[in-house]
Every structure is written in structure tokens, then in C-alpha cells.
Amino acid sequence: MFNLSADGTFPRKLSVVRRRHGSPYRASMATSGAGLVLNLVVAVAGLAAIDLCAASLGISSFVILGVILVAGIAVPL
Hints:
Layout: H1 2-7, H2 25-45, H3 49-74
């Protein structure tokens, strides 16, 4: 998130770093907040944690297969 905000994809406010440590604290807080919101949604909906993990793994598997397919088509060209 820090790199994408530094490139201008996300708001530039997320690419601010602490002077003392050089750590991207705003991007870290935004990522932690998004994870917290997702976990709260799962908890309020009454889903089991394994359901979220299974859905995430299934979606990421299809995305990886899509990337492999596009790369396999692009290499010979």
C-alpha cells in the first residue's frame, strides 16, 4: 500500500513515513484497519474463520492461474 500510494494509485497521504524511523506508519495503520474491518464482518455474520480462509485461498488460486495463463500467452509473443 505504501508503494502504491507513493506511485499515486492510492492517496498520497498513505506514503508518509516517520522521520525518526523511516517507517510507513500510515500505510501500516490503513492495512491493519482493513484487516480489522474484514474480521469484524466475518464475526458479525457468524461465519467460521475457516470459511474466510477457504474463500481467500480459492480466489487467490484462480487469480494465480489467470496470471500464469496471461504470462504463458505473452511469452511466445
